[in-house]
Amino acid sequence: MQDLTLVMAQLDPLVGDIPGNADRAIETVREAHLEHGADVVVLPELFLTGYPPEDLLLRASMETRLRDARARMAAKVVKDVMVVVGYPGRREGQLYNMAGVLYNGEWIAEYAKQALPNYLVFDEQRYFSPGTQPLVVEHKGARLGILICEDVWKEEPVRQARDAGADILVTLNASPYHQNKPSERLRLLEERARDVALPIVYVNQIGGQDELVFDGGSCCVDAHGKLAVQAPHWDIWLRPVQFIQEQGKWVPREGEVDLDVSPEEDLYSALVTGLRDYVNKSGFQGVVLGLSGGIDSALSLAIAVDALGPQRVHAVMMPYHYTADISREDAAEQAKLLGVNYEVLPIAPMVESFMETLAASFAGTERDTTEENLQSRCRGVLLMALSNKKGLMVLTTGNKSEMAVGYATLYGDMVGGYNAIKDVYKTWVYRLASWRNTESLVIPQRVIDRPPSAELAPDQQDSDSLPDYDTLDAILVRYIEGDMSAEAIIAAGFSAEDVYRVVKLVDRCEYKRRQAPVGVRVTQRGFGRDRRYPIVNGWQPGD
Amino acid sequence: MQDLTLVMAQLDPLVGDIPGNADRAIETVREAHLEHGADVVVLPELFLTGYPPEDLLLRASMETRLRDARARMAAKVVKDVMVVVGYPGRREGQLYNMAGVLYNGEWIAEYAKQALPNYLVFDEQRYFSPGTQPLVVEHKGARLGILICEDVWKEEPVRQARDAGADILVTLNASPYHQNKPSERLRLLEERARDVALPIVYVNQIGGQDELVFDGGSCCVDAHGKLAVQAPHWDIWLRPVQFIQEQGKWVPREGEVDLDVSPEEDLYSALVTGLRDYVNKSGFQGVVLGLSGGIDSALSLAIAVDALGPQRVHAVMMPYHYTADISREDAAEQAKLLGVNYEVLPIAPMVESFMETLAASFAGTERDTTEENLQSRCRGVLLMALSNKKGLMVLTTGNKSEMAVGYATLYGDMVGGYNAIKDVYKTWVYRLASWRNTESLVIPQRVIDRPPSAELAPDQQDSDSLPDYDTLDAILVRYIEGDMSAEAIIAAGFSAEDVYRVVKLVDRCEYKRRQAPVGVRVTQRGFGRDRRYPIVNGWQPGD
């Protein structure tokens, strides 16, 4: 009886590092061959450049580098294994998003991606021309129909591959994560497999790249749409799929299936992965962050420690007159719990020095948010000085609800290289904090229980100037993710006053978000490449 | 003898303000009718939304608003005038970039743009489906072939309009400016007109929208490619083109042609327009900027005064120990020359207060750029405090050469809402300063003549750490605008040491640029939507 071992190589490329990614590919194939007896190894979409390569695709030497890398792979990859790997390729003047097939030292076939996403975070039509032809390659009697990512979200390329005689569909992906994406993806694969009555092997990358994070979850569904094998999410992994021929059809044997995790664990893993890869791939020694005694910085600290270990994390409490005693106590307590470097730098001398210098200019004016922002900016300057001196990246700690309505100070609490919770709504910040504490206590319970406050004025609470976070987040999800109009949100049961206030704040604060650090995107509409709004904007709320 | 008066309406829409833009259109048609006896009025591409509307196109109420606006136009626009105007329109489920034709209260025809640019700053395939059909409308016996912007850069849609029987090609545009674009555009129109032996009427918008600035220069070339009429650049304008019928062909009468301006005047006008529109359309009372005694802030101040008038400009000199006496003198002198508000706020008390607070953390470390950045950040905090208190936008003053190599301090001299010279290389900063002084003295000559210095350390000069600006800019233009590899630049005659240093700096500083304020784009590759590079990037220089 014929069989075929296909290994799904769920890897983490470094964008732009073409020689390094080729080395990773060569090493991966050897390992898949030695450990799993691979007949076929499938790597992710655009693996040789990493995804997304963005305007590196326009560089003059891109093609030379890829030619060299592919030549080296052809010379070094072990024999008798068929390798399918993604890279960009120019053919007859047009650039394509391709999958190449390497066998016994020869690149024997190429497929060009047909469906090029150009929405949300994707800009593929900026670079690529669409392919039009299917590709089926045969190995050990099995005919593999090659597809790339978006192709499998469309019916046409999938049916085309079936009609070209494929026994097994193999799709290379660089499919970024957002909440619930893993289950959406699986439902889609089940539907497509049933539609064409063929098994589908789906190979996705993992790791973080700027605002994107990839969750992996590479898998195989059988011709009835049943999940047969699945690699873990959030880790580099080689997972074999054993196909056997039964009555002329190639059927995947049931193998290991990574168990589902809770929504909280899944999201938390995304944040840890995004931060870890940003810091490590950028070569930072570690991170420094301001610890305020509030929930956002507390969760960010826990994520940082889980991503980098406590030795690489430096926390600073920067109290002022409005900092509550319990904030100081809780910050110190958490730093101790997690074993991170910790120092206390009061900001009063600097704030007062600025106010004295500005006294003449401000004469006759009322106290307003200027003074609040000044506190926040003195903290920002301190963090940046520590960052510069110690080579640590500043971790920004504002959540999505704040970034949406501009409840953050430019050059103040918004300073930093990366924000692990940038795309996490405040209500989810609480959920994640509580969930993480069930694993082990990392956040003092009082931080979770007390009412949130920016502590920039006496007795200030977030609810003084914003709707409660349950309401705020519910409005924001509808406005940002749902593109609903203010009127439609009001019709869904929210107060007109709240909705108009929130919607206007979101529109007005585009200028702030444009200067915010990048952070890991975990919703369907992150603030970044995902949501492209004008700053100068005459749009008024209304139907 | 038949004749036809076509009025080119070179307008400045407000992005997102659909009702307001419709009002502008109604008013414009009335004026064109009364003052010029218009038979046809042509307005720019996507005029009703403004260009580019970006993700506002995804909003649920976009279509309702456009329907209302077009209904109001149909009811209010004067009779007997044919109006051609751009707007997005959904037809059979697809969104198109359209030109609609309004006549005597009826929308009688629509054209859908065929060539959708998706490169550089353009993302039109993110939103629009391409049209496939030509549109020719007849008025007073003249058959007008309608095209939209990119269509006229391609041969196919132009020939299609001719084949459909057009006598005159009419193209609606939102064509952003870059240096030399006006002459490139004119050459293209000459070529296209000759190719199909038809006159072309080209209507472009003017004004600034975030990083884009539109120069206008609406014009008509005759069937031989000869410029017959041209509206001024950089101003709202209604300019008529008189067509007469001669031997069965429609020929434009020679009319007013706006004279060419120098490259310096053209670029300077772009910067003034970009800044003026950003500030006014955002509703700021004015701007505040740090005046250092150096050339960048001096030029920025001159631009700000030309854009907004001296009453709306507030300049602050923020000296420290390393600020030369001549810097103080020249800053004061320029503020006096231009009649702007001016104050001096020394930063020593704040800098020293930070250093004392950080003394324990910094114990045993060497002095490095941390201390330099600290000075710059104290200035940033002061400017932001003035901005917050007085409702003035901070004008950022870093040039493109600095932004390219990261010779700027995040949250220091990079603070601000807008940067008028963000896309101007240092060598051009000098050219513009000298040119502006020939009009009237606005920058003390010594500011132009002295060697550039950031004045963040004793006796510091820019040339200590960078190649001279002629060399630096020559390398940058090749690397950024030309996408040349380091090796190709070296082969063009530059030192390998300089080239590798510059190229590495450019690649490494993407994280800084990502948090920079927007500023007016005036080259073919501005740092913004134009050049999309990964921050985490393993690309190494080399062929």
TrEMBL record, chains A, B:
GO terms for cellular component: cytoplasm. Coiled coil: none annotated. Keywords: ATP-binding, Ligase, NAD, Nucleotide-binding. GO terms for biological process: NAD+ biosynthetic process. Its EC number is 6.3.5.1. InterPro entries: C-N_Hydrolase (IPR003010), C-N_Hydrolase_sf (IPR036526), Gln-dep_NAD_synthase (IPR014445), NAD/GMP_synthase (IPR022310), NAD_synthase (IPR003694), Rossmann-like_a/b/a_fold (IPR014729). L-glutamine binds at residues 119, 175, 181. Residues 4-259 form the CN hydrolase domain. Pathway: Cofactor biosynthesis; NAD(+) biosynthesis; NAD(+) from deamido-NAD(+) (L-Gln route): step 1/1. It catalyses: deamido-NAD(+) + L-glutamine + ATP + H2O = L-glutamate + AMP + diphosphate + NAD(+) + H(+). The active site is at 45 (proton acceptor), 113 (for glutaminase activity), 149 (nucleophile). Deamido-NAD(+) binds at residues 373, 402, 512. ATP binds at residues 290-297, 397. One of its GO terms (molecular function) is ATP binding. The keyword Nucleotide-binding applies. PANTHER family: GLUTAMINE-DEPENDENT NAD(+) SYNTHETASE, NH 3 /GLUTAMINE-DEPENDENT NAD + SYNTHETASE. In the C-terminal section; belongs to the NAD synthetase family. Catalyzes the ATP-dependent amidation of deamido-NAD to form NAD. Uses L-glutamine as a nitrogen source. This is Glutamine-dependent NAD(+) synthetase. It comes from Halomonas cupida.
